[in-house]
Each structure stands twice: as structure tokens, then as C-alpha cells.
Design goal:
two-stranded antiparallel ribbon, single chain, globular, 2 strands, 271 residues, mainly alpha
């Protein structure tokens, strides 16, 4: 059946739902759109550059002119900057947080735009559903808080992690081992996986619900009234579409907040 090209081969007369052959295909874009010398530009690479240019454009058009009465767009951008600088950077790290505000603002805006690509017509693909993107961002955060920790505290930063004085003496070796693995191994992984898993799960559910609903509607000539089954699927997919917008914003916030928290533990390890 040509109308079921998105699904695996099945008989719509006997099977109501046709399962995709491999859902991983929804997230793999290995074929190069174009090449420049030895560099292949896949859809993921192109969208990564697009997200970067979108963020730069937002800041440029939001702050290119100094006005006594800023435009509505300028007020919106100022609100985002103030939120990240005051609430996330300074509110979490302390007065020194202003030094890290540019980084936190950059990752917040990039992740937000990358997440919203999932809901953008013609794109419908969240960049953060590719593990390489959130993993690289989490590695940046990891490098910052590790370097800051050693720069501000010297070897005491490592010693306080391995041998925490606030823990009873008999448990210090165990807690120290757990903290050592957590700080230097698990933090970048959990930070990346949290963002990756949420966007993959939401996008996969959205794709399957809307795709299944559309397949039922398109097959009305072959399965008759049973195509009505696609209506609740499609309706539920639209609800998930709204929910995904909330998830896209929330996950950008959580990633940025945790980055600020991790930096704070290096700036003020006594806390």
C-alpha cells in the first residue's frame, strides 16, 4: 500500500496498527546534504549552524539599538538575559555568577532553539535528540566547573571531594569514592542523558501519534470506517504537541540551572 509508506509492510485489512520497521530512522540523518572538501554537512550539522545563527540573530535584533523605550522584542530579550543573569547565574552561584552569565545564557538560548526545532514546521527535529549535542554541552560545563574548582581551591578541591570532613570518619572513604565518581564521571553523563532522553521520548511519542493518525486517515479508502480510529490518536498528538513546547523550555532551564549548580560547587566547595 503506497499510503503506508511510513510503516512497515502489513495488511491494513487485518492489522489496525502497522509498526515502523525501525524507529531509530526517525533520528538518524547520516546522508550528507552537501560537502565542502572532506567535510560532509548532514541535516544535523546544518541545523546546528542554523540554531547558532538564530541565537545570534535574536541577540542582534534585540540589542542592536539603544532605546529609551525599547521595543516589545527588546523587552522580551532583556527579560531573558535578566532571568539567566540574576536568577540562574547570581541566584545560584552568588555575586561571582556574573562572570559565568554569558556562558549560561549561551547554552540556555542554544538549547531552547534546538529543542523548539522539534515543533518547527519543515524541521520537526530536536537537535538535542542526537546524543552528541547534549554530551558536548555537558562536557563544556564539566570542564568549566573542574577547571574553576582547581583554580580557586588548588588540590584542596580534589582532597575535599575524596575525603569529605563533614562525613563521619568511618564513612569518609565510601562517600569520598562515590563523590569522586559522581563529580568526575557521572555528572557530564547524567546532565547529557537527562536532556537527550526527554527530547527523544517526547519527539518519538509526538511522531508516532501524529504519524499513526495521519496513516489511518490516508487509508480510509482501504479500511473504511476503521480509519476513525486515527482521530483520537491525532487529537492526543496535538495535546502532546503543546506539552512538548513546555518540555522544550523546561529542559533548557534545567540544563542551565544544573550547570550553574555544578559551577557553584566549585566556586564555593564549602557549601
Amino acid at each position: 500500500m503506497d499510503v503506508l509508506i511510513l510503516a512497515s509492510e502489513c495488511d491494513p485489512a487485518t492489522e489496525i496498527i502497522c509498526a515502523p520497521e525501525n524507529v531509530i530512522e526517525l533520528f538518524e540523518f547520516n546522508e550528507a546534504l552537501f560537502s565542502i572538501g572532506p567535510l560532509d554537512f548532514t541535516r544535523t550539522v546544518v541545523l546546528t549552524f542554523l540554531a547558532m545563527f538564530v541565537v545570534l540573530a535574536l541577540f542582534y535584533f534585540g540589542f542592536r539599538r539603544v532605546r529609551v523605550v525599547p521595543s516589545k522584542f527588546g523587552v522580551a530579550m532583556e527579560s531573558v538575559v535578566s532571568f539567566v543573569r540574576d536568577d540562574l547565574a547570581k541566584g545560584t552561584i552568588g555575586p561571582e555568577g556574573s562572570r559565568y552569565a554569558p556562558y549560561l545564557l549561551s547554552i540556555f538560548m542554544f538549547i531552547l532553539v534546538a529543542n523548539l526545532f522539534a515543533l518547527t514546521p519543515g524541521i520537526n527535529f530536536p537537535l538535542t535528540s542526537r546524543m552528541a549535542i547534549p554530551l558536548m554541552l555537558s562536557i563544556f560545563t564539566w570542564l568549566i566547573f573542574v577547571i574553576v574548582g582547581f583554580t580557586k581551591n588548588g588540590l584542596h578541591y580534589l582532597f575535599d571531594i575524596v575525603w569529605p570532613k563533614s562525613v563521619p570518619l568511618a564513612l569518609r572513604w565510601l562517600v569520598g569514592l562515590i563523590e569522586l565518581v559522581s563529580v568526575f564521571v557521572l555528572r557530564p553523563l547524567t546532565l547529557a542523558v537527562r536532556l537527550f532522553a526527554n527530547l527523544v521520548a517526547g519527539h518519538l511519542m509526538l511522531t508516532l501519534l501524529l504519524g499513526s493518525g495521519w496513516i489511518f486517515f490516508a487509508a480510509v479508502g482501504d479500511i473504511g470506517l476503521r480509519s476513525v480510529i486515527g482521530l483520537p490518536w491525532f487529537a492526543f498528538g496535538l495535546l502532546i504537541f503543546v506539552f512538548e513546547f513546555v518540555v522544550a523550555v523546561l529542559q533548557a532551564y534545567i540544563f542551565t540551572l544544573l550547570s550553574a549548580v555544578y559551577i557553584q560547587t566549585s566556586v564555593h566547595p564549602e557549601h
